[in-house]
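pasting for the record
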Amino acid sequence: MSDLKWSYSSLGLFQQCPRKYYHLRVAKDIKEPETEAILYGKRVHEAAEFYIGKGTPLPPPFEQFKEVLDMLKNIQGRSYANTRWG
């Protein structure tokens, strides 16, 4: 089974430079340094996942995203946060 995950950032990276995408996401022979921006993004994604998927309140630093997350949360149907398919 493949470990590839498609996301907005993955597609953007591929468009920017297919070779860089290959080394970072496929071969994984180069590790991208975790900048403050990357770490912040990971915290936002995790908070959003728990808020939408489990109803966990948003931590104060991420309350600015509540309006958008509520729109996503109120979409009819099932939601699957970071679910593996296949």
